[in-house]
Amino acid sequence: MRYFVHIGYHGLHFNGWQKQPGILNVQGVLEQALTQVLKTPVFINGCGRTDAHVHASQFFFHMDIEQPWDFDLVFRLNKLLPGSIAIFDIIPMSGMQHARFDAVQRCYDYFIHTYKSPFLNGLSALYLLKDLHIDKMQQAAALLPQYKDYRPFCTSPDKYEHTICNVMSAGLTVDRSGDRLRFQISSNRFLSKMIRIIMGQLLKIGKGELSVDQFEHYLISKETPLLITPAHPQGLYLSKVTYPYLNLPPRTEFSAILQNQVDQFG
Prior knowledge:
By secondary structure, this protein is of the alpha+beta class. Helices cover 25% and strands 24% of the residues.
């Protein structure tokens, strides 16, 4: 029987989601825990791939299990897994739904703080910047849903069949003091490092190193910027994954706390 598993993870100390030999990754840790608890080899398929040190407020994977279990699997897994990975729900499916290919929308959040804070370290990206042109950053972010081809904002566009992304929404919010920022973007799919590259371009706009017109020129012409500087990975969260048959609210707190603080003052 196929099951969807709803999880969240703090990715700072992981080298991304995808299983790779000899490298600490989320998929490998989960498969090891499932195999140990269910006493049979378990292989899982995730809803996407997050980069090294990127977080997930909401993530789904699917697994096929032949024999049902007669104990609280969520409880046992959470006892065994490290504190940086949490299991929220295990959902039996009626068919062979696919965690990656069936997703119709993915939403990411990127958090920035502009002052050193021991409490935000690893949960938000630190940029010691003052007097950012927030209005221009917001203008540029608002342009994103008007365009479909994101080839200029991808590290390896030629590995894809196409670079079309249906960006449904994008926006930048800031708290009243101007030192906490949240960029949010939702789309049916994302390209390699696309969000971190966009965030890097928005920061250049905020610093006055790039104009909004130049930013839009990349979207229109599909020309890759001469210098691509992706934003730090630890500010990025996969925060919502939506399916035609499954639409659950995120359960993790570490992203929600930051989001609520920004929203409160935005």
